[in-house]
């Protein structure tokens, strides 16, 4: 009997609406206190939104204020700067 490979969890990018493996996405979270932050672990409590690890996707999210709508909160400019820095630093993207 052969073992089947464990399926990778898929999540939807809020900008492109594509279903993508979770490892290819960055999660942004709004917690109960209303704080918005980048979730490196992917496991923090709160309302989350996923973005592809792509500079163009992050720029599009910023221009269209997609995260503001999905997280139902004001997303600070520093969040977009942090997302861009993470994508540039990630060798897999």
What keywords describe this structure?
alpha+beta, Hypothetical Cytosolic Protein, Chain: A, 3-stranded antiparallel sheet, 93 residues, 31% helix
Low-confidence stretches: none
Strand content: 15-25%
| Radius of gyration using CA atoms only | 14 Å
Task: Write the CATH architecture name.
Answer: 2-Layer Sandwich
What is the percent of helical residues? 25-40%
What structural class do helix, strand and pairing data support?
alpha+beta
CATH superfamily: YlxR-like
Task: Explain how this protein is built.
By secondary structure, this protein is of the alpha+beta class. It has one domain (10-89): YlxR-like (Hypothetical Cytosolic Protein, Chain: A), CATH 3.30.1230. The protein has 3 helices and 5 strands, in the order βββββααα. The protein has helices at 55-64, 66-71, 77-89; strands at 10-12, 19-21, 25-30, 36-39, 47-52. The strands form 2 sheets. A 3-stranded antiparallel beta sheet has the order 4-3-5. Strands 1-2 form a two-stranded antiparallel sheet. 19% of the residues are buried.
SSE layout and pairing:
Elements: E1 10-12, E2 19-21, E3 25-30, E4 36-39, E5 47-52, H1 55-64, H2 66-71, H3 77-89
Antiparallel strand pairs: 1-2, 3-4, 3-5
InterPro entries: YlxR, YlxR-like_sf, YlxR_dom
Pfam families: YlxR
Protein name: YlxR domain-containing protein
Question: In a nutshell, what does this entry contain?
Answer:
The chain contains 3 helices and 5 strands. The protein is α+β, with helices and mostly antiparallel strands. The radius of gyration is 14 Å and the shape is globular.
């Amino acid at each position: 009997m052969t073992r089947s490979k464990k399926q990778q969890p898929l999540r939807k990018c809020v900008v492109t609406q594509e279903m993508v493996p979770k490892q290819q996405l960055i999660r942004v979270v709004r917690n109960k206190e209303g704080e918005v932050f980048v979730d490196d672990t992917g496991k923090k409590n709160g309302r989350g939104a996923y973005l592809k690890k792509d500079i163009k996707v992050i720029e599009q999210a910023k221009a269209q204020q997609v995260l503001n709508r999905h997280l139902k909160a004001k997303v600070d400019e520093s969040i977009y700067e942090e997302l861009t820095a993470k994508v540039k630093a990630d060798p897999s993207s």
